[in-house]
């Protein structure tokens, strides 16, 4: 088992970065993304693939047929369906690597589909945002071939580590971590959006900095946390549904996870209602976004005085 040819199913942010860097390492990389079927996004995808040194395939089936290893990098709500569709098309000598952020039970269902067709399956959990570290982004692996896959991906410069021979452990680690990480993003978004309406944001941030001085509450940290929601809130909300499923599957009430879904999706929905998209508000400033969505407290006070 070796990776000389790779198919990426999903050519979004993570898929494009991995594809570009692996192609630069000498791997022949193919890709397929369902957005190719949309005339409005097709040309941009082909341009991106050309820039990355990746060959876009005409169909899902063609991408599967050309590759030795297949990496699924789609949205959480598509992950299981993609695995089930791929299982029917793949050959026993191929390998399916599932890097999607989904519940262990979802990964196990995908593994069962692969197993029924004699296809190798790897549960992979991407443990940090991909853009800053690219191939060095930490990834945990689980599955019968996890040790071998870790060795081969490591030789290509990837930061991978086997954590289990069973499917589900790696994804459980990622899901539990997401409660904290996506939760902190959601808490910060709600906290500072509210504080701004009372002109209390400076004192709130000063208090947070005093309590947690190493986190950067007095600097760029709040901007970073809220920017992650503004840019990726829809995708993160789908992931948090899988996190809620992770807890629920073992009898733990996913109260916080469900609330995080609402906050992550809620900010993105508010931006859509205001005709805002993330590129239009770069360089990102959380105060500017909150004032645009909810109005600045200074403006509201001026309007109130005029009415008097």
TrEMBL record:
Residues 195-265 form the Phosphogluconate dehydrogenase NAD-binding putative C-terminal domain. One of its GO terms (molecular function) is NADP binding. InterPro entries: 6-PGluconate_DH-like_C_sf, 6PGD_dom2, 6PGDH_NADP-bd, HIBADH-related, NAD(P)-bd_dom_sf, Pgluconate_DH_NAD-bd_C. Residues 6-143 form the 6-phosphogluconate dehydrogenase NADP-binding domain. It comes from the Bacteria. Transmembrane segments: none annotated. Keywords: Oxidoreductase. The keyword Oxidoreductase applies. The active site is at residue 174. Pfam families: DUF1932, NAD_binding_2. SUPFAM superfamilies: 6-phosphogluconate dehydrogenase C-terminal domain-like (SSF48179), NAD(P)-binding Rossmann-fold domains (SSF51735). This is 6-phosphogluconate dehydrogenase.
